[in-house]
């Protein structure tokens, strides 16, 4: 079972999200928080696989809580679940280490898939958020970003570029291992090397480079 911490200041929203996740049969909400400070405390106490956080919450907003959880609970993946998809929120969330950004207006199956993906170590962005990331690239002109991305990717070996492309496509380490017929430990080493050589913090940022370098079809 995927153990989830759910944080939202609206009780009805938490109930709805809990019901959706429960319908998938592979996710268990182990703790619920009504504000960001409580979310951080519960993440430290329960060490869930995924912390699913709203952005606008009292005491401590979700973005700050996400950064704190990433910093202090390294075994917990963080995903934002919000009605707000403004660029500043997306930029800060991904820059702060979140590997998922989901919209409450999305399909319930999208929520289940997103939690499953980030729990498996992959990245997951709602389609609208992914479109923003591709179009805006978190800053800079499109042609400049493409040239910079290709230059960064050029230092990778052919196998590392192949792994990066699959990371960009949202595959987890086990899925990449199956696709490339490698053992999972080898894939993990490749992913770690790719992140290090690209100078990025997580798989979401690596996926952005993969998109901009043309390794993944938008």
TrEMBL record:
Coiled-coil ranges from the UniProt annotation: none
Pfam families the record matches: GerE, Response_reg
CDD domains in the cross-refs: LuxR_C_like, REC_NarL-like
Post-translational modification 4-aspartylphosphate, affected residues: 54
Biological-process GO terms, alphabetical: phosphorelay signal transduction system; regulation of DNA-templated transcription
Keywords: DNA-binding, Phosphoprotein, Transcription, Transcription regulation
GO MF assignments: DNA binding
Signal peptide annotation: none
Domain Response regulatory: 3-119
Name used for this protein in its record: DNA-binding NarL/FixJ family response regulator
Residue ranges of every copy of the HTH luxR-type domain listed in the record: 149-214
């Amino acid at each position: 079972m995927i153990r989830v911490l759910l944080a939202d200041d609206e009780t009805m929203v938490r109930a709805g999200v809990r019901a959706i996740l429960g319908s998938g049969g592979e996710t268990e909400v182990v703790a619920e928080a009504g504000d960001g400070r409580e979310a951080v405390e519960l993440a430290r106490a329960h060490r869930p696989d995924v912390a699913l956080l709203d952005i606008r919450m009292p005491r401590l907003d979700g973005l700050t809580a996400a950064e704190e959880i990433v910093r202090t609970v390294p075994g917990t993946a963080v995903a934002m679940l919000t009605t707000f998809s403004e660029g500043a929120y997306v930029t800060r969330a991904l820059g702060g280490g979140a590997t998922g950004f989901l919209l409450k207006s999305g399909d319930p199956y999208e929520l289940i898939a997103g939690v499953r993906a980030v729990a498996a170590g992959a990245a997951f962005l709602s389609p609208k958020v992914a479109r923003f990331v591709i179009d805006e690239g978190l800053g800079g002109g499109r042609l400049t970003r493409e040239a910079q991305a290709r230059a960064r990717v050029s230092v990778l070996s052919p196998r590392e570029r192949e792994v990066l492309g699959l990371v960009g496509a949202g595959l987890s380490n086990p899925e990449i291992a199956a696709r490339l017929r490698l053992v999972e430990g080898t894939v993990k080493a490749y992913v770690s090397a790719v992140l290090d050589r690209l100078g990025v913090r997580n798989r979401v940022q690596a996926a952005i480079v993969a998109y901009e370098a043309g390794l993944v079809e938008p």
